[in-house]
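TASK: fixed-backbone design
INPUT:
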């Protein structure tokens, strides 16, 4: 038996832009991504036998190939011919599910990184990201982590200078979102405004946290159905009133976040947001 535990951090979108629909049905993206300390733990154990067995602390998650963590293991075996006997994947989920924070993709990336180490496969991050791309559009970013520009389907990753360290308050409203549905809505209602991605990159190069924070922008916010958009606006307004340098929605939502320079401000905002929202977290950028 051999075992390894890998941390799978959540991501936020400092910016999210959709440039158009592609011939393959996906959308051309331009996003500045950031890892945060809210993370799942992924434990991989190999032993005698065969197959992949997955379990998690959340009973409603699929445990077969529909779970991206299992899909990543199967894809790695297919691509490399790696042998491991029986693989057990245990997910300790802390990242909210279907929240716009790439929890499933990050678990998949952790499986790829973990198996690479456990089995001594010697694959580079770029090679792991290449396998991850076949599992999901956000997996390559999750393999790399940190502050990065993601383009193409989301799989073309360019590392950026790290966001200056700060505190992040995350608030997840209770309403569900469907990523394919939101992309389809975007096709019928072209967004009027786009993020200043170049400005964010310039601010990152200058180590200018307020300059990044005030440019946080996500095109999906504008196309959310009326009521959901209202909830997102309300949470963002509260984060900003409590001193956030900037606030926005992550991915296709519904999680909303605000950046704070000081821990006390973050804590005060976290407490206040709990009045509006059940799921609230105070975390650090990585
Ligand atoms: O790649 P992934 O399986 O994570 O994508 C989930 C869904 O999100 C796709 O089926 C597609 O509807 C949508 N998507 C898209 N364009 C992207 C990424 C995702 O339209 N760049």
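OUTPUT:
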């Amino acid at each position: 038996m051999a075992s390894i535990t890998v941390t799978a951090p959540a991501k936020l979108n400092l910016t999210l832009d959709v440039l158009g629909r592609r011939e393959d049905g996906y959308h051309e993206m331009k996003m500045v991504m950031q890892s945060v300390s809210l993370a799942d733990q992924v434990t991989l154990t190999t032993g005698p036998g065969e197959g992949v067995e997955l379990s998690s602390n959340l009973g409603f998650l699929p445990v077969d190939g529909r779970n991206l963590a299992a899909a990543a293991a199967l894809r790695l075996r297919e691509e490399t011919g790696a042998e491991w006997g029986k693989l057990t994947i245990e997910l300790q989920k802390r990242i909210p599910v279907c929240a716009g924070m790439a929890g499933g993709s990050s678990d998949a990336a952790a499986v790829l990184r973990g198996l690479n180490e456990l089995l001594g496969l010697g694959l580079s991050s770029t090679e792991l990201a290449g396998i991850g791309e076949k599992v999901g559009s956000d997996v390559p970013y999750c393999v790399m982590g940190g502050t990065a520009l993601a383009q193409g389907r989301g799989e073309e990753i360019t590392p950026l200078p790290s966001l200056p360290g700060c505190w992040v308050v995350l608030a997840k409203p209770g309403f569900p979102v469907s990523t394919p549905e939101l992309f389809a809505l975007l096709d019928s209602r072209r967004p009027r405004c786009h993020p200043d991605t170049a400005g964010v990159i310039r601010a990152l190069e200058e180590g200018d946290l307020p300059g990044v924070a005030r440019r946080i922008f996500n095109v999906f916010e504008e196309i959310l159905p009326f009521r959901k958009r209202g909830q997102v606006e309300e949470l963002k307004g509260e984060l900003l009133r409590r001193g956030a340098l900037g606030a926005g929605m992550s991915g296709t939502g519904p999680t909303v976040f605000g950046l704070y320079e000081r821990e006390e401000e973050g804590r005060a905002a976290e407490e206040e947001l709990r009045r509006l929202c059940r799921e609230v977290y105070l975390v650090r950028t990585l």
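COMMENT: The radius of gyration is 19 Å.
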